Amino acid sequence: MTGARKVLVTGGAGFIGANFVRYWSDKYPSDRIVVLDALTYAGNRANLESVEDRDTYRFVHGNILDPAVIGDTMQREAIDTIVHFAAESHVDRSIHEPDAFIQTNVIGTNNLLMAARKHWIDSDSAPANHLFHHVSTDEVYGTLGPGDPAFTEQTLYAPNSPYAASKAASDHLVRSYHHTFGMQVTTSNCSNNYGPYQFPEKLIPLMIVNALTGKALPVYGDGSNIRDWLYVDDHCRGIDLVMNKGRVGATYNIGGNNEWRNIDIVNQLCSSIDAAFAANEQLAVQFPQAPAAKGQKTESLVCFVADRLGHDWRYAIDATLAESELGYKPEEDFESGFQLTLNWMLQNEGWWRAVMDGSYRDWISRNYSAES
Ligand code: NAD
Ligand code: TYD
Fold this sequence. Notes:
The chain has 13 helices and twelve strands. The chain has a domain at 6-195 and 230-257 and 315-333 and 357-367: Rossmann fold (3-Layer(aba) Sandwich). The radius of gyration is 20 Å and the shape is globular. Helix 1 (15-27) packs across helix 7, helix 2 (67-77) packs parallel to helix 4 (98-120) and helix 6 packs parallel to helix 8 (262-279). By secondary structure, it is of the alpha/beta class. It binds nicotinamide-adenine-dinucleotide and thymidine-5'-diphosphate (TYD).
């Protein structure tokens, strides 16, 4: 698309969405960005602090299960581009409460597609160009064994958790709106993201917070499960390439080329925290409950706990298509990305304490005007 776009970012107050909003506002400052977010436990306006004051930005507190708020926002803002992040995103929660995943990830995605069809395809005042970009996951492809080739865009879907199944359903819906109604869509399926603003329930931020507060580091099963780790800014760059250079109707895998066993991640994290405390005496004052503050090894907190039900053993992404067609290449390796993440968590204790106890709402209302 050419000219300034009017971009609706669903789930823009979550981890990847907020990083994407900052990335996109910096790179395309004349684009209008409207965030639509229900502010579940995972969505925080504090994550959008860096863009709150921009004229081109607006926040709408609304749920994708509410067709009226979607339609109203699309009409009022003359939206021509949707980047769809909003989702229930944590596998462990999907095991305990699958229904919320079906609601938001399946019904919510369908609501967005129906609204997009109405405003972009069936309307007399449809914009000249439109794009619906759907953000999905490698978990739709199921699990891999040790010698299996990495997931490609041709790998058959075999989702194993309610989360993965709900994302697979949403991927199929997006595909069908392209095939049936001619909607301009792109989809990206990415590996495990990490970086600033990730809610401390996912492996890396949870382990960092627990290590700094002297709590156990719970490794599921024997810790041999493997994930491919993607620094969140590399993911944002990948989405940008897919949206601007990708073939309409196509799916692209975005990965980090960083396969790690969980136990190796946790051990690496422990030694990085020990090294950070050794290099900066102030950290022992700031985090007195951390083993590293008492001259002990952070690794002493590691404990092996019961495995996750249906725990996928390995995910790995083959990003050859995005590399060859779009020029995608991750910039961070795991060491550099992890160091950026750890430094951010050390410098933003106020953020993680506030999002974990829900008090970020007080923080944002002290700093910004009321929610739209
Ligand atoms: P997140 O859980 O941090 O954020 C989700 C956001 O969506 C939150 O701001 C939340 O308030 C919002 N939301 C949830 N339900 C909503 C609803 N019904 N209406 C409106 N807003 C709602 O998730 P994330 O980690 O940033 O993931 C973003 C997207 O990327 C998701 O679609 C996820 O499936 C996908 N993804 C994530 C990862 C990862 O490692 N985090 C990997 C692959 C794909
Ligand atoms: P997670 O961050 O939940 O992402 P996903 O399940 O989407 O891959 O988990 C990453 C890996 O870490 C996964 O194999 C489960 C494991 N894990 C633990 O061992 N302990 C934990 O406390 C968590 C949250 C995850």
